[in-house]
Amino acid sequence: MRVLFYENDENPYFSLAFEESLWRNLKEGKVDNTLRFWRHKNVAIIGYFQLAEEELNFDVVRKYKIDVVRRFTGGGAVYQDMGCLIWTIAVKGPKDGGVNYLYNFLLRGFVNALKRFANVRVENINDVVVNDRKVSGTSATFQGEYYLLHGTLLINTNLELMGKILKVSKAKLSDKGVSEVKYRVTNLVDALGRKINTSEIIDAIIKEYSSLLGEKAYFDLPTTDEIKLAEELYEKKYSKPEWNLLRLPSRYFE
């Protein structure tokens, strides 16, 4: 299992293009199972099936100069800053594993890592909760025997700004017994009541995924093929407002 520390924190458009490139290169057998860690500065990322104007308050987005990017996996909208760690696990697994393999097996590596620090549980299949507050959300894709699961970890994110940017229905908040987004989620430092070094968390995630997959972890750099494809995806897809702001399908940009 290779481990990548690869981010382009000031260009989330390219960073998301690289994420898809990693996934495609894995499916082509060009790279090993991969655990990636990355971050962004002030970006709102929406899911593949979402429409940006329905999920984000654009008055706030413009005021704070927030980038808006659409990812190639499903799930809901998220806000990320440098206080949010993003992790990705992309692997070759069982041919018939499906969603069960993603959320009942693959997510376990991340959850087990957080259990080293706090009492953790999973809600709604893909939300990771500490003290009844969400600290991580995940999204995924799979094709045949190839799987990609990625998620956030709120360590010390600006929750006030997050609450202003994201539109969440009052009904959904009511179901959680809260009135605002910032009260439905929490930072890990607040849940633990102490500061925590991000390197501690990363080390735990690496160890748990190495154990879960039964593979020795090694540190690596992106391949030439990954960078080349990421550049193509950036130019043709992720840099385009038609991709980021509308619901146009991926095939439109091929």
From TrEMBL:
<dbReference type="Pfam" id="PF21948">
    <property type="entry name" value="LplA-B_cat"/>
</dbReference>
<dbReference type="InterPro" id="IPR004143">
    <property type="entry name" value="BPL_LPL_catalytic"/>
</dbReference>
<feature type="domain" description="BPL/LPL catalytic">
    <location>
        <begin position="29"/>
        <end position="217"/>
    </location>
</feature>
<protein>
    <submittedName>
        <fullName>Biotin/lipoate A/B protein ligase</fullName>
    </submittedName>
</protein>
<dbReference type="InterPro" id="IPR050664">
    <property type="entry name" value="Octanoyltrans_LipM/LipL"/>
</dbReference>
<keyword id="KW-0436">Ligase</keyword>
<dbReference type="InterPro" id="IPR045864">
    <property type="entry name" value="aa-tRNA-synth_II/BPL/LPL"/>
</dbReference>
<dbReference type="GO" id="GO:0016874">
    <property type="term" value="F:ligase activity"/>
</dbReference>
